[in-house]
Structure formats: C-alpha cells, structure tokens
Amino acid sequence: MSAAAPAPFVPLPSADPACPLCREHTGVPVWQDADWRVIRAEDADFPAFYRVIARAHVGEFSALPAAQRARCMALVCAVERVLLERLAPRKINLAALGNMVPHLHWHVIARFAWDSHFPQAVWGPRQREVEGGARARLGIDLRALDAAVATALSQCP
Amino acid sequence: MSAAAPAPFVPLPSADPACPLCREHTGVPVWQDADWRVIRAEDADFPAFYRVIARAHVGEFSALPAAQRARCMALVCAVERVLLERLAPRKINLAALGNMVPHLHWHVIARFAWDSHFPQAVWGPRQREVEGGARARLGIDLRALDAAVATALSQCP
Fold first, then answer.
1. How many contacts, defined by CB atoms under 8 Å, are there between A and B?
2. Is B62's CB within 8 Å of A81's CB?
3. How far, in Å, CA of B35 to CA of B25, rounded?
4. Which residues contact A109 (CB under 8 A, 6 or more apart)?
5. Is residue A11 helix, strand or coil?
6. Contact A61, B80 (CB under 8 A)
7. Nearest to A60 among B69, B73, B84 (CB)
8. pTM for the full model?
9. What is the structure's pLDDT at B23?
10. Which is it for strands B105-111 and B49-54: parallel, antiparallel or unpaired?
C-alpha cells in the first residue's frame, strides 16, 4: 500500500505570524493529517533526517493532551522503525529541542558510524568529511524512503 | 507528599557488562522503579538536567513494548512539568540520542536564555560564559528540585 502525497501546506487559522513552523513550508513534505505533518529535512550531512511537526503552535511536549502525546510518539516511533528497517543505522537520534523555533517538532535522525558528526550529536562538532557526500554514501532512493515513511505513518494507530 | 530516596543502584542480572548505564551509577539518584531510574546529571553548565534511564539494556525507543513507551514518556513529561513549574525556563529540551552509550536514556534539560549554550543545543558550541556559574545563576536548591521531581514521578500513572 502506498501513501498519497501530502496536500499542499496551508497555515492553520491559529498560526502564529512570528513562527516559521506555523507559516513556512520547509523540507520535503512526506505526510500529514489534521494535527501533524512530517517532512524530510534535506540536510546535506544527514540525508535520513525527518521531522514530526505539530500543526498547532504548541511549545512544550507536556502542553499536549495525553492522547495527542501518545499519537505524537506513535508517529515518531513509526518513522524510527522505517529508518531502522530500511537503513540499519548505527543509532536513531530523537530530539525535541525548539530553542530556536519553540513550536513542537521532533527530530528523527538515522545516524551512521561514518557520518560527519558521529558519535557527536548532529548539533555538535564535525568529526570528519564524508567523501562524495552523505547522500551518495547512504546510497538509497530518498523518495522511496519517503514513501515508506508515509505508508508507515498512514498505518499508524 | 515527599518521595522516598531511591534504593542503592544495583545492576540487573541481565546487565550488559560493556554498558556503563547497565553497570555504573552516575549522577544524583532521584527516583526509580522496577523498569526506570531517574538521575540528575550534575552538569556544571546545565544544573537542571535530568535523565530518565531504562533499567534494562534496550537500544532504541521503538524496541520497547507500547505500554513501556507510554510509561517512559509519562515519566519524561512529569520531569518536564516540574522543571517548567519550578524554574520557568525558556525551553525544555528532550532527547534520546545514545550515540556514545546505546542504552535508552532520555535527557530532560531546562534551558535559559542566559545559559552557556542557548539557543544552541547543549551539545553545540558554547555561546558565552555565565558569571559565577550556572548553578549560582539558577539560584535554587537542587535537592529540593530533586525532591519535587521524585514526588511527581511517584505520582505518575
């Protein structure tokens, strides 16, 4: 089963005009529903880097009602599992920081021993150059990966 | 209601002898139950930095059964709420990375506009020195904060 391409990004009526995650479409759109959208970040160093983004402008994870928190982590978990199954990474990194953009978004990042920053965080100091670039080194069809992620999200309870 | 001090750290029979989070006690013990333990990290730059650590040696969040994932995030959320209520931080950072120690542990970190790295991640480049140190700047009794965290965890569903 394949997932339909997500609808074009349309800000919610409640969008915060000062918040880029409320107003702007960035990254490759992968999937969305009424409350969440998932994009691929298009990071040159980390090709398998997705974000699970709240549609509404909420700052902290604990501000969500319990059912929304459960839904959010089910989506994060679904993305994680696709990355584990398809890419066999060394590690998955999960993070909700929001220091620069305090609108809830979860980073889900496949990490490899060869990547530019491993074992440091992606926000830490670069450890090495990756010859030919990370996307070539990963050597997979990112559109097919996006489709697998979208399918998993569509099937997520 | 106050929470009892956690029992001394005892590795599980299933502990991985190569894993420091299975074998070693680090940080200030705050709370534990059969499946999880919570410590304060004693980081000089980030005094209100807690970790929610799986007792068992599990690598990825998605490897946990659903009920354990829910319990884990309920604990993370409980710590977050205490930090928000008691410290009014600029932001809470949540992360499960595990690149160096692939044993599931969630970082829960109160961030402030004045802290040494804000708005960068705690793993990113230092932005400034904090005169007198972060603990003095925060100006709270960390043992009382630990007790509030432990109480919230004890009441967590």
1. 97
2. yes
3. 15
4. A46, A48, A49, A50, A92, A93, A94, A95, A122
5. coil
6. yes
7. B84
8. 0.96
9. 85
10. antiparallel
Q: Are strands A36-40 and A49-54 parallel, antiparallel or unpaired?
A: antiparallel
Query: Higher confidence at residue A4 or residue A123?
Result: A123
Q: Testing the interface with B: which of A46, A51, A60, A156 to mutate, by most B Cβ within 10 A?
A: A60
Per-residue pLDDT tens over the stretch B80-100: 999 999 999 999 999 999 999
* Cα of A4 to nearest chain B Cα, Å: 25
Coil vs helix vs strand at A90? coil
**A17-69: pLDDT as tens digits:** 999 999 888 899 999 999 999 999 999 999 999 999 999 999 999 999 999 99
CA B22 – CA A62 distance, rounded (Å): 28
Of A92, A99, A119, the CB nearest to B118: A99
Tell me what the mean pLDDT of segment B18-34 comes to.
91
Q: Give the number of other CB atoms < 10 A from CB of residue B132.
A: 9
For A:122-151, CB contacts with B below 8 A are: 123-125
Nearest to B120 among A80, A96, A123 (CB): A123
